[in-house]
Amino acid sequence: MKNVFSIFLKVIFKIATIMLVVIPFLNRIIPINIALALGIVSAILFVVESVILINEHKKRPVELKTIDTLTRGFSFVVIVFFVCAFIANYFNTWLSWWWVVAITSAFLVPIFIININELNKSNGQLPEERKKASEYRTLKLILFYLLLDSFYIALFMKSIYFQFITGFLCIVIVLINVSSAVISNTHINKSLLIHDFVFGISLTVYLIYIIPNDSLQNIILIIVSALFGGLMTLVGVAWTIKDSQIKTDESKRLEHMPFLQLEIPAESIPAVFEINLPMCSEPTETAYRKITVKNLGNGTASNITYIWEYEHNNNKAFDYPPINAIMHGDSYNFIINFDYNGTIPNQSKGKINFEYNDLLGHTYNQTVYFYFDGSYLTRIENNPPKFMGYLGYTRTNNN
To answer: Using one digit for the tens of pLDDT, what is the confidence trace for 73-107?
Structure first.
């Protein structure tokens, strides 16, 4: 009975969602009073469904949140679209479909960018510096696309002056992005750089085309052509130099990259330290296992931290190992105490997310999986370290 009621609710919610999109286009079939009543009921059901989905989203594991995160917040955009489209079709007002697209885009794009940023932050433990940089890029993207939306409004309003103002600001932002990409120490995204060039040139050509004075148009065309030609030459030279520098830096990084490998030793060897990994919130028993950690990489791993996660326990454990630097070729034996309560399910697994630096200041993230048969650790799977950038994690700086 409960499953039947759940299916019935889902069907009602889906019908409400479809009605929100369809009702504004039935202005020649449904009278305004009936359409307004159906729209309000559909909007209420749609909001209720959105709240339920958001609550379910919070309970889901990180790897299943991608679609939920992208759709979270779009319920507001759907409501905005319904209201604008309803007014545009049912009432004789200034609100045309040009404005419906502009208003909906003004909400849709920022919400999409914000949710993408939140998704990226939820998929990993980012340094504080990277969080700030990510928030700055998010704000910059939102402002840029709102400016593009304003340029779109100027187009259908046929306001030449407003087109010049918004279009010129868009070109300035694009040129700043291109210059920043060339000057910065980060890797150049070639596709984005080409996109900025094509967009900037296309918008510039359009703005020159709508200049009413032919003489002024020819003068500006000559100046802009020279500027873009010189800029493309500078970017090409800088691109080549930077690409060569990146390859040199990457070669040095690989020469100093550590790689920690955990394995179960074949013989009993004295341990030099112990760590505790909880498998439940209130453990009463402990199962231990001797482990060997080896540095198979080319350089020293320093500022080591780890986060322990077990699939049947929502609580994460963060700690520093007693030995916080392992040189190339060194190995240490230690004991892991797995704290549990009662029995551990068969065929369960946990993972340790290591974070450490090399001697050049690069930061790495490495995941090691532990597979259990009851309380007995049967297998360890080591993944290669992922290069996270030059910035050290904030929490390791206090070590």
So the answer is: 677 788 888 888 888 888 878 888 899 999 998 98
pLDDT digits (tens, 9 = 90+) for 228-283: 888 778 777 877 887 788 888 889 989 999 999 999 887 777 888 899 888 887 88
* Residue 50 backbone dihedrals phi, psi, to 5 degrees: -65, -40
CB 77 within 8 A of CB 110: no
Q: State how far the Cα of 119 lies from the Cα of 64, in Å rounded to an integer.
A: 11
Residue-range domain boundaries for the chain: 1-158, 170-256, 260-398
Contact residues for 317 (Cβ-Cβ < 8 A; gap 6+): 276, 277, 278, 307, 308
Q: In the block, which residue shows the tokens 């759940």?
A: 6
Which DSSP state fits 24? G
Main-chain phi, psi angles of 159, to 5 degrees: -100, 105
Q: Which residues pair with 190 in a beta bridge?
A: none
Number of CB atoms found within 10 A of residue 370's CB: 22
- β-bridge mates for residue 352, sequence order: 308, 368
Q: Give the model confidence (pLDDT) of 291-350 as tens digits.
A: 999 999 999 999 999 999 998 887 788 888 888 899 999 999 999 999 888 777 888 899
Total Cβ atoms within 10 A of residue 320: 15
